[in-house]
TrEMBL record:
Main localisation: cytoplasm
Protein name: Rho guanine nucleotide exchange factor 4
DH domain ranges (all copies): 71-255
Cytoplasm as UniProt keyword: yes
């Protein structure tokens, strides 16, 4: 290790620089409960060689247990054993790789290690506490009586740390791909693996495990609930735990989607001419809706045709160039946190003393300032009113879930957009790395695939982000 792994050059190096990634939104995993197929799928034989047609819930297995109890025992054992294996896996990464990498300051900076391994050490500490909680609830004499549902409920908030890891994972893959173009890093990582006596999988394969693990919890809990009688003391907790872990997975998916959007928002802003004031990302991370509206201003009820972009917390106003309609100029913005939306009936408006149609107002509660807008068609007006409702819901949800974007992420997004803009690249927003995660958000799954092999993490299906549809209507992105 001190020679960058040179002593292991003769060792067979099996390096796979880009193994298939697991879609955060749809995880394909098969839960094995210590047997290839459920025993209940096979009829029991009775005297005379005839099959017993009784239901699986009344069949007896072993010492007075029903088949359902035995299946629950198998699932419980599966959960406990996989947790122990996972802890060993995390320990190997932290002690076998991170510890050795920190000894080689000539090869790795602390920033590089943070990029490669993310917050996996935090996950390791969390999982050690979680597995201890599971073992306390494990009934060794009668595993099917174990009450593990409460453990998942207790740790559901802590499991949200997986969000940071999953969001960082594409960056880890890119950094590893860059480093392993140099042989000394390939030999070093292989030496780490051999010294820790880990199985023959490359580092990027090991780092994929936490992503897979958070996907597997809902699968395991769904299987456990399947074999838990409603009268069982653990039934309600398992049912609640399943919903809780689905919510954790949805939260991770949503945060990943939002973080991918900030690059697009930064690139959008870089395409707007004469931008003034703070960046959009200082307060916003989601484009809710966009379109053309007629804005009517005091004191002479002057009307102006403008393009409006509704983000969370703010409404940005832009003007099209008179000659080149593919160019947008920044004009102003409205703080949505101070506004209330008022539906305006067709006819004469008393505040502006003019006749309006398909109109609505934004009224500032603090300053009593009023903004009047008119859409071309009634359906366009309704879409805007619904968009304003969505914006408020999004803000409230972010407050409840604690979603935020770090200053580092904001600055990096703006820096990347600035570099792309100044190097003369097209202004069209390019998709980030890990693009297939966005494309395969809701793929069509084969009906022949068994239910226990497929689990939709994002349930119920959410509509795809309308960011690209909104942006695609703007001609600046068609160059």
């Amino acid at each position: 290790l001190e020679n960058g792994g040179e002593n292991h050059k003769k060792a067979t190096v099996s390096w796979r620089s880009s193994i298939p990634m697991v879609d955060i939104l749809v995880c394909l995993a098969q839960l094995r409960v210590n047997q290839d197929e459920p025993m209940e799928d096979y009829p029991l034989k009775v005297e005379g060689g005839k099959e017993d047609d009784s239901s699986s819930g009344t069949r007896r297995f072993g010492m007075g247990q029903t088949t359902k109890d035995q299946m629950r025992t198998n699932v419980i054992n599966e959960i406990i054993s996989t947790e122990r294996d996972y802890i060993k896996h995390l320990k190997d990464i932290c002690e076998g790789y991170i510890k050795q990498c920190r000894k080689r300051a000539d090869m790795f900076t602390e920033e590089q290690l943070k990029t490669i391994f993310g917050n996996i050490e935090d996950i390791y500490r969390c999982q050690k506490k979680f597995v201890k909680a599971l073992e306390k609830k494990f009934n060794k004499d009668h595993p099917h009586l174990s009450e593990v549902g409460s453990c998942f409920l207790e740790y559901q908030t802590e499991f949200q740390i997986y969000s940071e890891y999953c969001n960082n994972h594409p960056n880890a893959c890119m950094e590893l791909s860059r480093l392993t173009k140099v042989n000394k890093y390939v030999y070093f990582f292989e030496a780490c693996r051999l010294l820790q006596k880990m199985i023959d999988i490359s580092l990027d394969g090991f780092l994929l495990t936490p992503v897979q693990k958070i996907c597997k919890y809902p699968l395991q809990l769904a299987e456990l609930l399947k074999y838990t009688n409603p009268q069982h003391r653990d039934f309600k907790d398992v049912e609640a735990a399943l919903n809780a872990m689905k919510n954790v997975a949805r939260l991770i998916n949503e945060r990943k989607r939002r973080l991918e959007n900030i690059d697009k928002i930064a690139q959008w802003q870089s395409s707007i001419e004469d931008w003034e004031g703070e960046d959009v990302l200082v307060r916003s991370s989601e484009l809710i809706y966009s379109g053309e509206l007629t804005k009517i201003s005091h004191p002479q009820a002057k009307s102006q045709q403008r393009m409006f972009f509704l983000f969370d917390h703010q409404l940005v106003c832009c003007k099209k160039d008179l000659l080149r309609r593919d160019i947008l100029y920044y004009k102003s913005r409205i703080n949505m946190d101070d506004m209330e939306i008022l539906d305006v009936e067709d006819g004469k408006d008393k505040d502006f003393n003019i006749s309006v149609k398909n109109a609505f107002k934004l009224h500032c509660r603090d300053t009593e300032e009023v903004h009047l807008f008119c859409a071309k068609k009634p359906e366009q007006k309704q879409r805007w009113l619904k968009a304003f409702e969505s914006e408020r819901r999004q803000v409230q949800l972010d407050q409840e879930t604690g979603f935020s974007i770090t200053e580092v992420q904001k600055k990096q997004a703006m820096l990347n957009a600035s570099k792309q803009h100044h190097t003369g690249k097209p202004k069209a927003v390019t998709r980030p790395y890990y693009d297939f995660l966005m494309r395969q958000k809701h793929p069509t799954l084969p009906t022949t695939l068994p239910q226990q092999q497929v689990f939709m993490l994002a349930e119920p299906k959410r509509k795809p982000s309308n960011f690209w549809q909104n942006i695609s209507r703007l001609t600046p992105f068609r160059k």
